[in-house]
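Researcher: Good morning. I'm working through a list of sequences from a screen, and I'd like to move beyond sequence-only analysis. For each chain I'm collecting a predicted structure so we can compare shapes side by side. This is the next one on the list. No need for commentary yet; just the structure.
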Amino acid sequence: LSSSSLSMSRSPSSSSAGSGTDNKTLSSTTTKEKSSLLQIFHIVASKIHNSNPEDKPDHPLTAGTPQEQEEHTAKENYTSSLLEPAYDDRTNWKILDNVSNTRTVPIDNNSSVVSADVTIPSTANYQASSTHDLDEEKEYFFANCFPMYRKRFQFNTHTKFLGTKSKLFINQTISPDCTKFALINEHKWEIYSINPKDNSPQLISCGKSSGEYGPDFNQLTEPTQSPGTAPQSLKKKKKNWSQRFCKLSNEFLIISGSHNILNIHDINQTGKLIYSYASNFPIRCIDIDPRSQIIAYGITGKDRHTGAEQALIVIQQITRNKVTQEPEFPPPITITLPYRDPINTIQLSHDAKYLTCSTALESRFLVISLQKINEPRLIMKSVRSIDTSLESEGITDTKLFPGNPNLMCITSTAFNSSPLVINTKITQINGVRTVAQPSMLIRVDEIGC
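Model: Good morning. Structure tokens for this chain:
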């Protein structure tokens, strides 16, 4: 501290009163809590700054030159811009050990003395009370820096006792709103609700491949007659069929398996079987849109004349009765692909306007427009020239980005292959017969943290 900034000439009475008050403040602060030199400095600096200049007519700068007065005024303006606003509640201020984060003690401008009852609260108590807030803030910043980061939860769906084996599930799926997930094996299925606050997921419905359903396996209900096919033909195929694939929307669970059977269960009715269909050809993959309006599944058919295999996609719409609001299933729509390669994967876009699929042997990927559901058309097909390193061999999944159909991600099982992000260019199509040619944008070398 320089002498010019602290030198003040006062009357003996005011000087003695001020020194006595300062000694009382420092002694009171020392007795109640040990203060650092930095805290004492801020208390004294705040008192000097907040004192009324009209009460100090003997200040040496008042009698100085105009240049010195201008320099002192500029320094005071700069210092006042750095100070924080005064606080009405004296208990809300905090003192930290960091200079840049230190807050000065609020002093009333009307009084010339500092209250001796001012205490310095402990920083440790404040940090302990805000630990939870800091954790949430760290997680929020981490999620912004790493958008692909998601908090991980791990649950046990079945308790394991001594001498018993844990159940094995052959497939699983999760709902679009991430509130439910389903597990299936050859002859049973289970749906659980996801609640991170609970220690374990809650079973909301379950059932068997025979059509029985209920809230748990001890309260199963026999199925009613299914409207999809004739009862005799369906019963004959359902005797020894096994489940293989499953997809879950916010309202329905669809399961397909051997004997070309497709079942649809209503989650809102405790998993009741509301539709069952037996196809003439094997079902290789299935999907349902998040709004539960369209079901798509790929089959491998045969030409009636030549007997050659043909890749087909079946679109099954789900409508609601205007009176009862019960789901209804109009006749399906069949799409013939220009390739004989069997379909490996199938995915509906988030808005159900586009359908992406890939083939098994030649690893092709396609995009079909469903904006006119009764007139689906091919709008994009893969180009082998963009994949010179054969990174799309063995495609495991294709997915359009939500809200941007120009971007699509492709994953593969090829050795050391990275997920590909391509530009589909489907929004740039002009004309009915035009088919877009995609181009590769990036390879995603690392996913997650």
